[in-house]
Amino acid sequence: MSDQFELPFGEARPVLQDPKLIRTFLGWERPLLPLAVEHLTRDWAHGPLDLSHLLVVVPTKQAGRRLRSSLALHAATRDAAVLPPAVVTPDVLLSPAFLPDLTEVVATRAEVLITWAEALLDANLDDFRQVFPIKPEERNLNWALHAANDLIAVQSLLGEAGLDMQGAAGVMAGEGLEPQRWSELSRLEGMADRLLSKRKRMSPRAARSRAAGEGLAASTVKAIVVLGVPDPPPLFCSALKHHLGTLQCEIVIHAPAALDGTFDEFGRPRPDYWTHCPIPIPDLEKNVHQAVNPQLQADYIIDLLSTPDHESLPAVAAIGVPDPELHLPLEKAFADRGQSTFNPVGSAVSSQPLAALLRTLHRLTVSDSFLVFLDLLRIPGVARQACAWEAHEDRPDFDPATMLAELDDFQRHHVPETLGTADQVNRSCERPNPALSRALSWIQTWLRRLDRERIWETLPEFLGQIYAEADSHPGDQPDEFFEATSRLLHDILDSFENGLLTNLEFATSFPDRLRLLLHLFEQEQIYPEHKAEALDLQGWLELPWEDAPHLVVAGMNDGFVPDSLQGHAYLPDGARRLLGLRHNETRHARDAYILSSLLSCREDSGRIDLVFGRR
Question: Which of 126, 465, 483, 499 has an alpha carbon 20 to 30 Å from 334's alpha carbon atom?
């Protein structure tokens, strides 16, 4: 099932008379999910459950999956079909999908990255001393990509309030806060924008701002319901005000009506109340636990949930993991006990074996190191291809283990630094090592091809030979992980073929193109299929949507609950407050409210355990 819906657009709507946001309080005697289903279906009497006229905004994709599934189950209790609402996250209202008349092409994330990298490599850094007080030792593509990432992240933060660097520079200068630095950032942003325009692309932030002020919902949508979203970004709130002129907009809050004064009009907890509100935790000694490090926290959670009444664990218990460092030890701890887990955030491509192979190949292309070549050969599937290189009756196939042993022995005796040196030494021997000769011939042939030919044609051929056999999938990962990473890699290579690299003077060589590909590839996430028996390891914002009676929240560590950002290089907390961005106090209020709701909805029926660690 898709996470987002295709929304058909239609004619302009009549303007509503006296439009205003409707706030609805569900109470918090029970978890949010069943209350949300009851609220959305309150007018359903008979026939199919038709909610297709609603656009429901939830905080995360996982929350959307849970809501759609629960609506389907609710309809099934009456043997009825369900016409579901469009369930989206706040960003969707700010996307080009809400601009049906948009004629410009909005730049992809890869195109934005490339234009920033190009701007940084073209810039005279002497003119940007406040942004780059220390010049990089090597001003190369790798530096430019990482610096571009940092600056794009600043743009993204500013975009939460509909700002760009130029707008922020005006505000900061007015307060006398680093005016020169922000002026330089504004100029760099202008350089990147001009390069985007040259490529006939619209900046994503411009598209978001236009969607906030001009967005058009689908003709089938009659109302927007913002359901359990405690910290929508400011630009989303602006978009909601815009839609309020033609659509009914409802803010649904998981809290009792008696607390209406502690939330603003968009359902955001007010810091002046929630940052000072005491949170009564029942039976502290029983329900609050401490474990020093992630592994000990994982072990403690296993013990908590290893009781006889938890025979069907996913049905009666759930785990929240605000600290991502806990995911790996928890996944391993449960796997050792035969319990599968599911992480809604997905798995980083950078942690996958295919990414490790490409990183090693890139290291080899820039260093020509014999030791790096040995590292490459140790990756599953690689040595087998080197062994089979030009094998025939007079040149029999080698065993991979034998080849690696012989190359390791050659390395110990001759210590060659480069592939070229290894080749020269081997040729000078009275009896050249045939295993080394074949391995060098194989890799040097491929390196020449990769350097001369198109990367989107040659690299898939190189990888296809390594992973040609089903049992050569890298590492111990399931096939779905390998297939997902392969699809992402081919998508990036397709973008290269379709013109992403056109006129890029800084990415003409194979090492640079592979570096760019790796940078894009390793920023991706893969999302394995959710299995019914899996235990979800959910993020903090997803926990209000969890209805399991026993909730264990691990990683209640400083910096994660309450969420806070310390020492940001460009946008410290004071600057965020000044610019109207979400800041530490608003996050503190949000997290205090969420914890209060989690405790309250299990007060009469259920249990919550909080596990703290030391950082």
Answer: 483
**Residue 285 is which amino acid?**
E
**How far is CA 281 from its chain centroid?**
32
Q: What is the largest CA-CA distance in the chain?
A: 95
Instruction: Say which residue the tokens 């975009």 belong to.
Output: 159
Model pTM above 0.85 = yes
pLDDT tens-digit readout, 125-153: 999 999 999 999 999 999 999 999 999 99
| Phi/psi-derived region of residue 365, left when phi > 0, alpha when psi is between -120 and 50, beta in every other case | alpha
The first and second tokens of residue 561, run together, are: 């609950």
User: How far is the CA of 54 from the CAs of 17, 23, 140, 224, in angstroms?
Assistant: 20, 16, 50, 6
DSSP 8-class letter at 527 = -
The backbone torsions φ and ψ at residue 288, rounded to the nearest 5 degrees and listed phi first, read -115, 130
User: Which tokens is 64 given?
Assistant: 């959307």
pLDDT for 9: 47
pLDDT number for residue 573:
92
Only one residue has tokens 């006296």, namely 18
How far from the centroid of its chain's Cα atoms is residue 354's Cα? 18
Residues of the chain with pLDDT below 70 are 1-18, 307-315, 391-396, 469-478, 558-559, 567, 614-615
Cis peptide, bond prior to residue 562, ω within 30 of zero: yes
Lookup: tokens for 220:
């089938």
Contact in structure between 480 and 528 (CB atoms under 8 Å) = yes
Burial level of 258, CB count in 10 A (0-12/13-18/19+)?
exposed
- Grouping H, G, I as helix, E, B as strand and the rest as coil, residue 211 is helix
pLDDT score of 302: 86
User: Which structure tokens are listed for 420?
Assistant: 């070229």
Q: Is 228 helix (H, G, I), strand (E, B) or coil?
A: coil
DSSP collapsed to 3 states, 432-461: CCHHHHHHHHHHHHHHHHHHHCCHHHHHHH
CA distance 551 to 300: 14
Give dist(CA 503, CA 560) in Å, integer.
43
**Could you give the CA distance from residue 563 to residue 582 in angstroms, rounded to a whole number?**
11
Q: Each residue of 182-193: b (16+ CB within 10 Å) or e?
A: bbbbbbbbeebb
Task: Output the pLDDT for position 361.
Answer: 98
d(CA 475, CA 478): 9
pLDDT at 307: 58
> Pairing relation of β-strands 82-83 and 86-88?
unpaired
Quote the DSSP letter at residue 393: T
Predicted pLDDT of residue 281: 87
Structure tokens at 322: 């605000």
Any idea which residue has 């680093």 for tokens?
178
pLDDT of residue 593: 97
Q: What DSSP string runs through 157-178?
A: HHHTTT--HHHHHHHHHHTTSS
Does residue 251 sit in helix, strand or coil? strand
Q: How far is CA 555 from CA 85, 216, 537, in A?
A: 34, 41, 12
